[in-house]
Amino acid sequence: MAFEPDTASIATASGKPKAFGKNPGVRLLLGLAGFIVTVAFTFLGLLAITFFIGRVVPIDPVLAVVGDRAPRAVYEAARLQMGLDQPLVVQFFHYVANVLTGDLGTSVSTGKLVADDLKRVFPATLEMATLGIIIGVLLGVPMGVYAASRQGSAVDQIIRVVGLLGYAIPAFWLGLVGLALFYARLKWVGGPGRLDIFYDGLVPPVTGLLLIDSLIAGETEIFFNAIWHLALPASVLGFFSLAYIARMTRSFMLDQLAQEYVTTARVKGVSERLVIWRHAFRPILVPLITVIGLSYAGLLEGSVMIETIFSWPGIGNYLTTALLNADMNAVLGATLVIGAVFIGINKISDVLYRVLDPRAR
Amino acid sequence: MTTTVRAWLIDDSPSSRLQARLGRAWRITGALSRNPLAVVGAAIILVLILTAIFAPFIATHGPLKQDLTQRLLAPGAANWMGTDELGRDIWSRVVYGARITLVIVAMVAILAAPAGLIIGAVAGYFGGWTDRILMGITDVFLSMPKLILALALVAALGPGIENAIIAIAITSWPGYARIARAETLTFKNSEFIAAIRLQGASAMRVILGHVLPLCTSSMIVRVTLDMAGIILTAAGLGFIGLGAQPPLPEWGAMIARGRSFILDQWWVATMPGFAIIIVSLGFCFLGDGLRDVLDPKSGEQH
């Protein structure tokens, strides 16, 4: 799925006059324009979906936003402010304008602007997912390459099962079991939360990423405490990432190892290590980037389940709390941000794939 | 007798549609049974279905029967998987939970697969603007994070198992539409389609009677492979409290209840998790095996 070019961009590209096709500069520009149109269309689609979920699906959208305990005046004010007396198209236009100016409404449960809330919680998620993808790449890629080079061996079978387990284990369950085992029993890692309580609020937030902020402030003790707490949730995310990455790497490598040029290299007496890393591994780097991008985007999504378990004050926790409080502005804001980042990462890896792969250019 | 039946089944020139279909089923079953993982997968799914049907006979207790004197007992002879905080037998709840899982999975497949099939086939068959608009919408849905979309939908629809099913179905159809479109494009211009059209068949008749049946095998593979994801999403919704509501013995919701006891009474949360993992793995194994048999081109990249 990830490797199919979008139909929309094909449609725009094929609609262009042929005369321009000869000039590579113009073609690149047109390709770029087509790509931007696709991306814009996708984001507009995301907005349409959140708008639909917020305004059309609930029986009373005002109630969904202000909550059922709101006084009459607040209800009426919200109703007017949402422009519910206007036709849907006008409402959608206003919604898009609001989102583009960064206005996501006010959260009922925190009483603050949703946009500010999201800015505050997003770094925690970013930190966890980034560490997760690093674990996934560092372990998953070598595992996949090794499994492919020893196809059918016991290690290969084990790696295949690990890959499938990534599809079968509920993330929240793995987090719970990990907490019971590695935190409660073995005391190898820190418990829920980003820091031990007595370290809380000691580091001034600069980037919001504790690992970087603590280094800026020169607090190595807090730095290690943050790692201590990050270790388990990031490993759980890392497991799902490595399962996927190892599975895909293995299948890409098997494709390459079956090619004739690999046989040629072997016949010429190139050592197996060189055959694998220089000849077979090089060409899979480009599709691997797409896989890693997809996995990273998936981790941002997966953090929603993990954060609840680890009381991680990130966007996932914010979203689930909002869900349970029926705090619709917060739900839609978080959905919008996660969706936008998800789409953004996917599109970027798509671009990278096209730029790096000579065949797709 | 058996040899003649077998010869009839593997006949190269079947004389009836029934014989051709049974023969194909025979060959697929044969190929599947040579793949050990696929056999394991099929066995797991079979056990799941049998468990769901015969739940009252397999369970040792009532799934909702509380006994506050028997709270949080460790797994033992009387309670094979222990008891939860209300003294309910976890084994019996897991057994009845198979029914809920099966209903969710079946309902999502029944809702999402035909919808995706028809949208994809229509887009591929008509082409042009129909194709562009339908596939544009499909692509927008495909690029959304599924779990988040399902969460937001359930938030708007309200918690509950029916709404969870609807939300998961809404997030699942685009993948099927993509496949159906690709398959339709490959044989849209073949002679047998042209022949039917020359006989005056309407577009609807061509699509329903001749295009869709050819998409089914790749669709079955994809749906089977998707089942694990559907089960995990449903369990996740249940875990957050938006899916099946208490006291229903849904596996995800059971894990959520066991969360508070995970440090001392680990079995409350872990046991339903094992059920989820085994069933999801079963669908993965079977899906992988089916793909090798029915759709060998697509390889690992699903």
CATH architecture of chain B: Orthogonal Bundle
User: Could you please say which CATH topology of the largest domain in chain A applies here?
Assistant: MetI-like fold
Give the oligomer, counting copies of the same chain as homo and different chains as hetero: heterodimer
Total number of distinct structural domains of chain A: 2
Cα end-to-end separation of chain B: 42 Å
Largest inter-chain contact set:
A-B, 63 and 55 residues
By CATH, the superfamily of the largest domain in chain A comes out as MetI-like
Mean pLDDT of chain B: 87
Helix-residue proportion of chain B: over 70%
Low-confidence segments of chain B, given as residue ranges, are none
Q: Round the mean pLDDT of chain A to the nearest integer and report it.
A: 83
SS strand fraction of chain A:
under 5%
InterPro entries (chain A): BPD_transp_1_N, MetI-like, MetI-like_sf
Transmembrane segments (chain A): 28-53, 128-149, 161-184, 226-246, 284-306, 326-345
Membrane topology (chain A): Multi-pass membrane protein
Domain ABC transmembrane type-1 (chain A): 122-349
Please provide a written account of the structure.
The complex is a heterodimer of chains A (361) and B (302). Chain A has two domains: 25-100, no CATH class; 114-360, Orthogonal Bundle (MetI-like fold). Chain A contains 14 helices and no strands. Chain A has helices spanning 7-14, 24-56, 61-66, 72-82, 88-100, 114-149, 154-168, 171-185, 210-216, 220-257, 260-267, 272-309, 315-324, 328-356. Chain A is globular and about 85 Å long. Helix content of chain B is 73%, strand content 0%. In chain B, helix 3 packs across helix 5 (90-126), helix 5 (90-126) runs antiparallel to helix 10 (203-240) and helix 8 (161-187) runs antiparallel to helix 10. The interface between A and B is large, with 63 and 55 residues.
